[in-house]
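Hi U.,

Before I forget, here's the chain from the pilot set. I'm dumping it here mostly so it's searchable later in email.
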Amino acid sequence: MVENNNNNNKRVIIVGIPGVGKTSIVSLVAEKLSHKELKATVAVFGTVMLEEAGKIGVRNRDELRKLSLAKQRQLQETAAKRIAKIKDGIVIIDTHLFIKTIDGYYPGLPLHVLDIIKPTHFVMVVAEAEEIAERRKADKSRDRDIVSTQDIHYELDILRVMVASCSMLTGSPFVVIRNNDNKIENAALNIVKVLCDR
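Structure:
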């Protein structure tokens, strides 16, 4: 079982499926924490992993997803070790809890990664499936797969199970934050409240 940090440092893992607005919320949370004079560092797990993969010639996330599971596992561990070295009072880890691969859904935070990072909090960002579908269609900056609202409901179900599992394995609490109707300000404030009230 993973043990939490014994000091006052907070390592919050914020997750959500593509199109839920997670990355925008993470940026706003970091900004609001800085206004409270709280030092927070944002680590985007996939970016750190891609930087490590670049050392072996991987050029983008599509190539990263096509690596063998053994190689992905090794890169996950390396990225987790880099993130674990960040000593700021609040470390926000922006990540996905699962990755769709040709072999099926692969956990973004398997136990060996949780053992290294030792998270203190989990935040799951959700929205209505129909709204997520519209956001994905409207996002021209990403090459997102077009999926049905039924598929999005399924992804949200998988996310809930994985967050609950991570919480159980680490003994860390999790909260569900809704980002409906682009109420990103409310979503960010709710996360800040969770981090500052503990």
